[in-house]
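Hey team,

Filing this mostly as a record. A colleague (T.K.) asked me to run one chain through the structure pipeline before their review meeting, and I want the input and output archived in the tracker in case anyone asks later how it was produced. No errors, nothing strange. Just documentation.

Input sequence:
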Amino acid sequence: MLDKSWTGKIINFLINVFLGIVLVLVGLLLSGNLTPLMFAQSFIVSMGVGYLICDFIPAPMWGQKLVAALGIKNALLGHLISSAVGAVVLITCISFFCQFVAVGDLLFVVWPHALPYLIASGYVVIVVFMPICQKIALALTE
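Output structure:
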């Protein structure tokens, strides 16, 4: 078993694996560039960028604070709202930096068109996989 201090790092790593897979697939499918090499390269960049951003930006906490401030007691509704805040903030930041690495100065030609699809798919990933990642992390750190 790992020390409890690893819980957040494990959650961050696992959610970024799922986000990386989905966001890379969506981005490459939208651009028509889905190849194994492009997927591998983009996934590695996404994991690195995503892990760092999720480590520095406490968006899930912001979502939880919003749910508390709104006085929402329903766990499912709270999870959906909290996940929406996290998805918008994190996916916007992650996709911005990943697209910048991929296309450089063409960023503002490509990124705004892909962003709604990336946020929508990232939101689904966070809603579905965040509880799973939390359970795995808690199991590994008990």
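Quick notes for T.K.: The CA atoms of residues 15 and 130 lie 6 Å apart. The mean pLDDT is 93.
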